[in-house]
Amino acid sequence: MTAQQLDQTNGTDDVEQPTVARKSDLSPYAAHLLVNAIAHRKTPDAKDVRPQMFYGYAKRGVILSYCAASLAGEGSDHKTHAKCEDVLFDGEEFYAWLKRYFAGERTARTQVDVDALSAQFEIE
Fold this sequence. Notes:
- The chain is mainly α.
- It has a domain at 22-105.
- It has six helices and two strands, in the order αααβαβαα.
- The protein has helices at residues 3-8, 28-42, 51-60, 68-71, 91-102, 114-120; strands at 65-67, 87-89.
- The longest helix has 15 residues, at 28-42.
- The N and C termini lie far apart (84 Å).
Protein backbone atom coordinates (compact mmCIF):
# COMPACT_ATOMS: atom_id res chain seq x y z
CA MET A 1 0.00 0.00 0.00
CA THR A 2 1.36 3.41 -0.95
CA ALA A 3 1.57 6.33 1.44
CA GLN A 4 -1.28 8.07 -0.42
CA GLN A 5 -3.54 5.00 -0.13
CA LEU A 6 -2.68 4.63 3.55
CA ASP A 7 -3.49 8.30 4.14
CA GLN A 8 -6.86 7.87 2.43
CA THR A 9 -7.78 5.07 4.85
CA ASN A 10 -6.87 7.29 7.84
CA GLY A 11 -3.76 5.26 8.55
CA THR A 12 -5.62 1.98 8.94
CA ASP A 13 -4.63 -1.12 7.11
CA ASP A 14 -6.84 -4.12 6.37
CA VAL A 15 -4.10 -6.46 7.51
CA GLU A 16 -5.03 -8.06 10.82
CA GLN A 17 -2.60 -7.35 13.60
CA PRO A 18 -1.39 -10.37 15.58
CA THR A 19 -3.18 -10.82 18.88
CA VAL A 20 -0.91 -10.90 21.90
CA ALA A 21 -2.12 -13.33 24.53
CA ARG A 22 -2.54 -11.73 27.92
CA LYS A 23 -1.13 -13.55 30.93
CA SER A 24 -3.79 -15.02 33.21
CA ASP A 25 -4.42 -13.39 36.57
CA LEU A 26 -3.50 -15.73 39.40
CA SER A 27 -3.90 -16.09 43.14
CA PRO A 28 -0.98 -15.68 45.54
CA TYR A 29 -1.17 -19.43 46.21
CA ALA A 30 -0.93 -20.24 42.50
CA ALA A 31 1.94 -17.74 42.23
CA HIS A 32 3.91 -19.60 44.89
CA LEU A 33 3.34 -22.93 43.12
CA LEU A 34 4.49 -21.42 39.83
CA VAL A 35 7.62 -19.84 41.32
CA ASN A 36 8.56 -23.11 43.02
CA ALA A 37 7.98 -25.10 39.80
CA ILE A 38 10.16 -22.73 37.77
CA ALA A 39 12.85 -22.66 40.46
CA HIS A 40 12.98 -26.47 40.63
CA ARG A 41 13.11 -26.68 36.84
CA LYS A 42 16.11 -24.33 36.84
CA THR A 43 17.77 -25.80 39.96
CA PRO A 44 16.44 -29.15 41.20
CA ASP A 45 17.55 -28.51 44.80
CA ALA A 46 16.11 -24.96 44.95
CA LYS A 47 14.61 -23.82 48.21
CA ASP A 48 10.80 -23.52 48.15
CA VAL A 49 9.12 -20.18 48.77
CA ARG A 50 6.04 -20.15 50.97
CA PRO A 51 2.65 -18.85 49.88
CA GLN A 52 2.64 -16.31 52.72
CA MET A 53 5.32 -14.36 50.88
CA PHE A 54 2.90 -13.73 48.02
CA TYR A 55 -0.04 -12.80 50.24
CA GLY A 56 2.29 -10.24 51.82
CA TYR A 57 3.27 -8.95 48.39
CA ALA A 58 -0.41 -8.50 47.55
CA LYS A 59 -1.09 -6.68 50.80
CA ARG A 60 1.90 -4.33 50.40
CA GLY A 61 1.34 -3.76 46.68
CA VAL A 62 4.67 -5.24 45.60
CA ILE A 63 2.80 -6.96 42.77
CA LEU A 64 -0.36 -5.30 41.49
CA SER A 65 -3.34 -7.22 42.88
CA TYR A 66 -7.06 -6.80 43.28
CA CYS A 67 -9.94 -8.42 45.09
CA ALA A 68 -12.02 -10.49 42.67
CA ALA A 69 -15.10 -9.70 44.77
CA SER A 70 -14.67 -6.04 43.81
CA LEU A 71 -15.27 -6.97 40.18
CA ALA A 72 -18.64 -8.40 41.16
CA GLY A 73 -19.48 -5.21 43.05
CA GLU A 74 -19.04 -6.91 46.41
CA GLY A 75 -16.18 -4.85 47.76
CA SER A 76 -13.33 -2.51 47.04
CA ASP A 77 -9.68 -3.08 46.18
CA HIS A 78 -7.62 -5.47 48.29
CA LYS A 79 -5.95 -2.83 50.44
CA THR A 80 -9.28 -1.68 51.83
CA HIS A 81 -11.02 -5.04 51.67
CA ALA A 82 -9.11 -6.82 54.43
CA LYS A 83 -11.26 -9.95 54.46
CA CYS A 84 -11.02 -10.59 50.74
CA GLU A 85 -10.59 -14.30 50.09
CA ASP A 86 -10.22 -13.90 46.35
CA VAL A 87 -7.04 -11.86 45.93
CA LEU A 88 -5.62 -12.07 42.42
CA PHE A 89 -2.39 -10.78 40.95
CA ASP A 90 -2.60 -9.02 37.60
CA GLY A 91 -1.05 -11.56 35.22
CA GLU A 92 1.05 -9.05 33.29
CA GLU A 93 2.36 -7.41 36.47
CA PHE A 94 3.16 -10.80 38.00
CA TYR A 95 5.03 -11.82 34.85
CA ALA A 96 7.14 -8.65 35.01
CA TRP A 97 7.89 -9.35 38.69
CA LEU A 98 8.69 -12.99 37.89
CA LYS A 99 11.28 -11.99 35.28
CA ARG A 100 12.92 -9.59 37.75
CA TYR A 101 12.85 -12.24 40.50
CA PHE A 102 14.65 -14.85 38.42
CA ALA A 103 17.08 -12.22 37.12
CA GLY A 104 18.22 -11.83 40.72
CA GLU A 105 16.34 -8.69 41.71
CA ARG A 106 14.82 -9.53 45.05
CA THR A 107 11.88 -7.67 46.54
CA ALA A 108 12.16 -9.21 49.98
CA ARG A 109 14.24 -7.83 52.83
CA THR A 110 17.98 -8.35 52.65
CA GLN A 111 19.82 -10.64 55.03
CA VAL A 112 20.49 -9.11 58.43
CA ASP A 113 23.98 -9.13 59.90
CA VAL A 114 22.92 -10.29 63.37
CA ASP A 115 26.41 -9.84 64.89
CA ALA A 116 26.66 -6.20 63.79
CA LEU A 117 23.11 -5.50 64.87
CA SER A 118 23.52 -7.13 68.28
CA ALA A 119 26.69 -5.07 68.85
CA GLN A 120 24.59 -1.92 68.38
CA PHE A 121 21.96 -3.06 70.85
CA GLU A 122 24.20 -4.67 73.44
CA ILE A 123 22.93 -4.35 76.99
CA GLU A 124 25.56 -3.84 79.66
